[in-house]
TrEMBL record:
This is Glycosyltransferase. It comes from the Bacteria. InterPro entries: Nucleotide-diphossugar_trans.
Length: 261
């Protein structure tokens, strides 16, 4: 038995994602997580969210006066005073849960995240700069990560010590976050194949896509829409390129909409 409910966290702000993204994700979690849990959405607009979704205000990033770049607001999840306690699994809104999430809580260790390179095909030109290549290979993709709330506040502390320097040195927040985690010995990755890329792992490569429809790789638990096509486009049957056909994805759309109605 699991006495303490685990936390499932997501974030929604602005108008890019509607409440259906939150509701569908919450249903996917409910269908695929056996242990007790709370589904929490940090948002600036709770309209349209289902009853089972706990809506909380977006946590303040704590930027100093004059620094208005809020693109890295996900780092606010590492506040010491987030108002929550326990183990949390963060999920971006644009992904489809396709199998049990319980294994994400069974792995021992402090922090787990997707290795970003596991979602993308090899980039040979990156090897021109071996040091940069090694760093990028270590970066975690923050679409899916697990942590103990309040135990990694050093990430946010380091950012707030000099936000301008951080955003100048690192292209995106997950690079900065990964560097801090690695420096503290807390950077661990999900087993490869648990979180898969729709484009690179489900859609057949090249002209093979003209003969086979997208399929779920064995062992996959979450389908992530890294890069293009975005999830809403792909689930409508879009995202075609001359070198890449996207065939029947009705199976994935059904999983995304599972339990609706």
């Amino acid at each position: 038995m699991h006495a303490e409910p685990v936390l499932i966290l997501t974030m929604k702000w602005g108008t890019l994602y509607g409440p259906d993204y939150v509701n569908n994700l919450a249903r996917g979690v409910r269908e695929n997580l056996a242990r007790p849990h709370r589904f929490i959405c940090f948002t600036d607009d709770a309209a349209g969210l289902d009853e089972g979704v706990e809506a909380l205000p977006l946590p303040d990033l704590g930027l100093p006066p004059g620094h208005k770049d809020s693109r890295w607001r996900k780092l606010a999840l590492f506040r010491r005073d987030l108002g929550l306690e326990g183990t949390a699994l963060f999920l971006d809104l644009d992904q489809v849960i396709v199998d049990s999430l319980d294994p994400f809580f069974d792995l021992p260790g402090d922090f787990y995240i997707i290795r970003d390179d596991d979602l993308f095909r090899a980039k040979p030109l990156r090897r021109v700069n071996p040091e940069r290549d090694a760093f990028l290979h270590s970066v975690g993709n923050s679409s899916v990560f697990r942590y103990r709330v309040g135990e990694h506040a050093y990430i946010l502390d380091a950012f707030l010590a000099d936000p301008a320097a951080a955003t100048a040195k690192y292209e995106i927040s997950q690079q900065f976050q990964s560097a801090q985690l690695a420096a503290h010995g807390h950077l661990n990755y999900w087993p490869r194949g648990w979180c898969v890329s729709f484009k690179n792992d489900c859609v057949p490569r090249g002209f093979a896509s003209y003969f086979r429809d997208p399929a779920l790789p064995p062992g996959a638990k979450i389908v992530v829409f890294a890069g293009n096509p975005k999830m809403d486009v792909a689930l409508r049957g879009g995202g075609q390129k001359w070198y890449r056909r996207i065939g029947d994805v009705s199976w994935l759309r059904k999983l995304w909409e599972q339990g609706r109605g």
